[in-house]
């Protein structure tokens, strides 16, 4: 997805939801993420831990890896990460190390969220040498329903 225009947060989140659908189609928990810089997608990902046999293959990590390959650097300043579910602690650590400027997520994660639901690592933890702004609730109901529908179908 190389899209250069003036999309809104909702538009970007809708694109992340299409990536979440890829995860669901593969039998993975439907979470999608994309990294945007200067109005263009530079990285995208969706949950793939089951298929890759890799516990770290969360959507956010996949998007960061994709962006790093595309731009030739693991540091990704001046970027916004859109993700359909609030990042976990592991992903928050990777986001900080990548120097992502902002995270915008859809649904909160009351079991493992690291942007205020369970932990408040982004942006509040002053022990990090980088701060990442974090805002949730963008298309929260659509993002949450994608997850609920997936788990309903598995029962």
Describe this structure in words.
Strands 2-1-3-4-5 form a 5-stranded mixed β-sheet. Helix content is 38%, strand content 18%. The chain is α/β, with parallel strands linked by helices and 155 residues long. α1 runs parallel beside α5. A hairpin with a 2-residue loop joins β1 (32-37) and β2.
Strand order of the largest sheet: 2-1-3-4-5
Topology, number of strands: 5
Beta-strand content bin: 15-25%
Give the SSE order as H and E letters: HEEHHEHEEH
Shape: globular
Q: Total helix count?
A: 5
Helix share, percent? 25-40%
**Biggest sheet statistics:** 5 strands, mixed
- CA-atom Rg in angstroms: 14 Å
* pLDDT averaged residue by residue: 94
Low-confidence stretches: 1-5
Structural class of the helix and strand makeup? alpha/beta
What can be said about this structure in brief?
The chain has helices at 9-25, 49-52, 59-71, 89-98, 140-154; strands at residues 32-37, 40-46, 80-85, 102-107, 133-135. By secondary structure, it is α/β, with parallel strands linked by helices. Helix 1 (9-25) packs parallel to helix 5 (140-154).
């Amino acid at each position: 997805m190389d899209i250069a225009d003036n999309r809104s947060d909702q538009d970007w989140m809708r694109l992340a939801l299409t990536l979440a659908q890829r995860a669901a189609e593969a039998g993975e928990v439907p979470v999608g993420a994309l990294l945007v810089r200067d109005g263009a997608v530079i990285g995208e990902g969706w949950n793939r831990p089951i298929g890759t046999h890799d516990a770290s293959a969360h959507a956010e990590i996949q998007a960061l890896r994709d962006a790093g390959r595309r731009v030739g650097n693991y540091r990704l300043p001046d970027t916004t990460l859109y993700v359909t579910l609030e990042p976990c602690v592991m992903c928050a650590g990777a986001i900080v190390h990548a120097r992502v400027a902002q995270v915008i997520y859809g649904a909160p994660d009351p079991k493992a969220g690291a942007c205020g639901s369970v932990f408040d690592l982004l942006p509040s933890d002053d022990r990090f040498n980088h701060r990442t702004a974090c805002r949730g609730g963008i298309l929260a109901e659509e993002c949450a329903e994608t997850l609920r529908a997936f788990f309903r179908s598995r029962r």
